């Protein structure tokens, strides 16, 4: 994955590096299994959790999960975030990115649980998530397209969608502190070529930030916010213009029919004649 390559470049003949790569490839499966545990304790049914997992009360189950994932995120944040992107993809709704009307799917129940787990990990602060997401985007862009779109999904889109949902659940005071890191991530998003979902998610980031932080005292921050908003609006406009075809009503050459009134009058006369022909039969 991009996270593994970012933190541990694979060196030919290095058995330790090769072993680390092989071990981390199983991390997405571990996280996917942990979601079941996490979702069960979140149900609030202590008796059910106790029957399913003989590890103690619901709070104990929660703490066990956090004790397992926290050290991993603290030491290997990029690799863990990359693994979460794969888990995010595996648990999203059956909507395909790029299908008309569904460029970005609504998070599924398991995806919502994944965001909840990410928010509970103390070391996964907004700056850590955004900084490593920026690193992963930069690393993924240098890989061949075939390797970046394994399993039929775009790694960049899944990564930004995951970060967007994470950002959407942050509290307002935290969002107010996040502009600098968010700006760096948005700049990296703007460099991804021809990707409508990422462009729309970039606009979503800006909309969320402006809705929670309508005022900004820093003049430099205001200028950067204005520039970034204009850039993403222009990108969205360009995508919309390219999406128009000759069959769209925007692209059609239409004109007013000059004999429209005459056609209407002829139709009225025909209908009148038909009515008069039916009167004797009635």
Helix and strand arrangement:
Blueprint: H1 2-7, H2 15-24, H3 27-42, H4 46-52, H5 58-75, H6 77-90, H7 109-120, H8 126-141, H9 145-148, H10 155-168, H11 172-176, H12 179-190, H13 196-212, H14 219-243, H15 260-278
Helix pairs in contact: 3-5, 3-6, 3-7, 5-6, 6-8, 6-10, 8-10, 8-12, 10-13, 12-13, 12-14, 13-14
Provide a brief overview of the structure.
This protein is mostly helical and 282 residues long. The protein has helices spanning 2-7, 15-24, 27-42, 46-52, 58-75, 77-90, 109-120, 126-141, 145-148, 155-168, 172-176, 179-190, 196-212, 219-243, 260-278. The protein has 15 helices and no strands.
Overview of this structure, please?
By secondary structure, this protein is mostly helical. 69% of the residues lie in helices and 0% in strands. The chain has 15 helices and no strands. The protein has helices at residues 2-7, 15-24, 27-42, 46-52, 58-75, 77-90, 109-120, 126-141, 145-148, 155-168, 172-176, 179-190, 196-212, 219-243, 260-278. The protein is globular, with a radius of gyration of 27 Å. The model is unreliable at 1-8, 45-50, 95-102, 146-152, 259-264 and 273-282 (pLDDT under 50).
């Amino acid at each position: 994955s991009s996270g593994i390559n970012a933190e541990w470049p694979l060196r030919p003949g290095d058995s330790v590096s090769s072993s680390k790569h092989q071990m981390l490839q199983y991390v997405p499966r571990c996280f996917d299994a942990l979601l079941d545990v996490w979702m069960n304790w979140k149900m609030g049914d202590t008796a059910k959790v106790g029957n399913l997992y003989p590890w103690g009360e619901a709070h104990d189950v929660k703490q066990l999960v956090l004790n397992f994932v926290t050290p991993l995120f603290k030491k290997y944040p990029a690799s863990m975030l990359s693994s979460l992107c794969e888990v995010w993809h595996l648990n999203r709704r059956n909507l395909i990115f790029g299908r008309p009307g569904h460029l970005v799917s609504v998070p599924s129940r398991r995806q919502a649980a994944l965001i909840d787990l990410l928010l509970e990990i103390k070391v996964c602060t907004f700056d850590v998530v955004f900084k490593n997401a920026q690193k992963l985007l930069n690393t993924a862009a240098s890989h061949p397209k075939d390797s970046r779109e394994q399993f039929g999904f775009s790694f960049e889109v899944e990564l930004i969608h995951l970060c967007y949902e994470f950002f959407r659940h942050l509290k307002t005071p935290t969002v107010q502190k996040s502009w600098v890191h968010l700006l760096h991530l948005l700049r990296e998003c703007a460099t991804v070529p021809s990707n409508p979902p990422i462009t729309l998610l970039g606009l979503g980031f800006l909309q969320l930030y402006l809705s929670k932080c309508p005022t900004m005292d820093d003049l430099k921050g205001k200028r950067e916010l204005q520039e970034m908003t204009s850039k993403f609006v222009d990108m969205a406009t360009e995508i919309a213009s390219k999406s128009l075809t000759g069959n769209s009503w925007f692209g059609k050459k239409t004109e007013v029919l000059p004999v429209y009134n005459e056609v209407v009058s002829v139709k009225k006369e025909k209908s009148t004649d038909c009515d008069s022909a039916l009167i004797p039969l009635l």
